[in-house]
Amino acid sequence: MAETAPQARCQWPSWGAEAAGTALMVLAILLAAAVTRDAGSARFLLLGAIVAPCVALIAVSPLGRLSGAHINPAVTLGFWGLGRLSRRDVVGYVSAQLAGGFAGALAGRAILPAQTTNSIGGAVTHPSVSTAAAIVLEGGMTAALLALIFAFVSSERRARWTPLVIVPLLTVIIWLGSPWTGASLNPARSEGPALAFGDVSDLWIYLASPCAAALVVGRIWRRFRDSVV
After folding, report:
1. DSSP-derived secondary structure for 157-172
2. Which residues span the domain enclosing 43?
3. Distance between CA 97 and CA 43 in Å, rounded?
4. CA 97, CA 169: separation in Å to the nearest integer?
5. For residue range 79-117, what is the model confidence (pLDDT) as tens digits?
6. pLDDT in tens, 189-200
7. pTM score, two decimals?
8. d(Cα 189, Cα 73) in Å, to the nearest integer?
């Protein structure tokens, strides 16, 4: 979700920064879920209002500037579909993100009391709708996020505003989507808590749907871009 996408880089510092940024994001989600657990009907709105700015802050931090701050395998795959990353970089970034997501969830489990993590289900994502509906919703929300990111990073003038403009979109998505699917949009966000808390029953939905949607959006955006050049 960065201002720019790294161009065919294979750098361990970038991958390390990506892992650290993803870990911070997942930790922030667990802490935010714990803080808002008793907020009643305003819970998901407050959750979005906390998590979305955290994502933006990671993007503009030194970690984010070093790695490009994808902090999401779906974003990385979207940029690959757009032709902005090599396959080797995709492997490096996605591996770092998944490792970071797991580390962040473990950190949250260590910091928060067991009673608290149990009350929020470890922030593990599960759909409250049918599997088919969850796949469509997660894919659609991911597509909306990627389209916004691409619209801004495709312009040098707009690129620097990318972290800022994703805040309202993420806030609304988390607010409205959380009751239905948990509004993950991010395989690393779902994978980390699922593994850390041993609850992987629905994980495949949150791995497959965002990644597929991101690849489709990347390919479509690339074709549209090439057709107008």
Report:
1. HHHTTHHHHHHHHHHH
2. 12-228
3. 27
4. 22
5. 999 998 989 999 999 999 999 999 999 999 999 999 999
6. 999 999 999 999
7. 0.92
8. 9
Q: What is the pLDDT of residue 227?
A: 58
**Could you give the angle at the alpha carbon of 171 between the alpha carbons of 158 and 208, nearest 5°?**
90
Kindly report the number of other CB atoms within 10 A of residue 47's CB atom: 23
6, part of any domain: no
Residue owning tokens 């907020």: 39
179 is a domain residue? yes
Q: Is residue 195 part of a domain?
A: yes
Q: Where residue 66 sits, what CATH number does that domain have?
A: 1.20.1080.10
Are 186 and 26 contacting, i.e. CB atoms less than 8 angstroms apart?
Answer: no
Residue-level pLDDT at 2:
47
Residue that has been written with the tokens 């959006």 in this structure? 217
H helix intervals, the chain: 12-35, 43-60, 62-67, 73-81, 87-111, 114-119, 131-153, 156-159, 162-181, 187-196, 203-228
Is residue 65 assigned to a domain?
Answer: yes
